[in-house]
Amino acid sequence: MAYSMDLSALDFSGKSVWVTGAGRGIGRCVADGFRALGAAVTGFDRAFAAADYSFVTRSLDIADAAQVAESCGALLRAEKGPQILVNAAGVLRLGSLENIPLADWQACFDVNVSGTFYLLRQLIPHFRAQRRGAIVTVASNAARVPRMQMGAYCASKAALASLSHCAGLELAQYGVRCNLVSPGSTDTPMLRDMPGGEAGFARTIAGLPEQYKLGIPLQKIATVEEIANTVIFLASDLASHITLQDIVVDGGATLAA
User: Fold this and answer.
1) What does the pLDDT read at residue 162?
2) Domain with 66 in it: what CATH number?
3) Residue 147 lies in domain
């Protein structure tokens, strides 16, 4: 039998997609991507700085369990639950384990882990009842390798990856797939806000031996579109037999670690 790819699998018309962290960066690009492919997209974030979003925006602090319950409850009662959920919200706080402020440690776990947990707790009954769907969570290659000055971020992203796998195992029998996309250094406002900013991209590509950090074999920083493309693939029917997986999109920086 001749092989043929069903490109209609990338048509999300009639599907509802929720994206957290949609105000900027990877989350916004993911939301725009799904919208361009026909989906009805609701983007969640604490703030939306621009005025030209292609999708419906909804203010939400996912670190607030009560807000998450209220927002999800209102949308589910209006029968506007998602077929696809993308957990892209995240924060980065830098500092050594000895000196990082406790508030920064807590913020990493509140947003990067607990926020996703609060959403899953509200939406698992919905996904279970509809017996289909896809959940894609944006983690980080930092969950796989240690990074100096990034202990809180690394630990929170590792916890997030484990949480996603556990959710995937619980939901598999209902036809719901849960996967991770783990970016490396990506050209986002978060990366540009780090010490060195854009001027430091060349050093990141070359590697930072004094920090025990390998360079990027593909010799470039990822674009947000490259991360979004992987998220969209995992949410599509092209990935219909993929669950409990973690795709690292980092130009080879972890060297398959």
Assistant:
1) 98
2) 3.40.50.720
3) 14-187+223-248
Residue 197, in any domain of the structure: no
* Cα separation, 84 vs 86, whole angstroms: 7
Task: Give the separation between CA 90 and CA 62, rounded to whole angstroms.
Answer: 10
What pLDDT is attached to residue 7?
81
Has residue 73 been placed in a domain? yes
**pTM here?**
0.93
* Distance (Å) of CA 60 to CA 110, 190, 232: 14, 19, 23
Neighbour tally for 4: CB within 10 Å: 6
- Residue 76: count of CB within 10 angstroms of its CB: 15
- The tally of domains found in the chain comes to 1
Active site annotation includes 118:
no
CA 116 to chain centre: 10
User: Which residue positions in the chain have pLDDT lower than 50?
Assistant: none
Nearest to 89 by CA among 71, 109, 116: 116
CB under 8 A, 24+ apart: contacts of 190-197: 190/25, 190/90, 190/92, 191/221, 194/92, 194/94, 195/94
Separation between Cα atoms, residue 159 and residue 138, nearest integer Å: 12
pLDDT for res 247:
97
Question: Considering 3, 53, 118, 153, which one is annotated as catalytic?
Answer: 153
Give the pLDDT score at 199: 62
Give the pLDDT confidence score for residue 72 in this predicted structure. 97
Residue 196 located in a structural domain: no
The confidence score (pLDDT) of residue 148 equals 92
- The tokens for 4 are 């043929």
- From CA 218, how far away is CA 197, in angstroms rounded? 20
pLDDT in tens, 196-216: 666 667 777 777 878 767 788
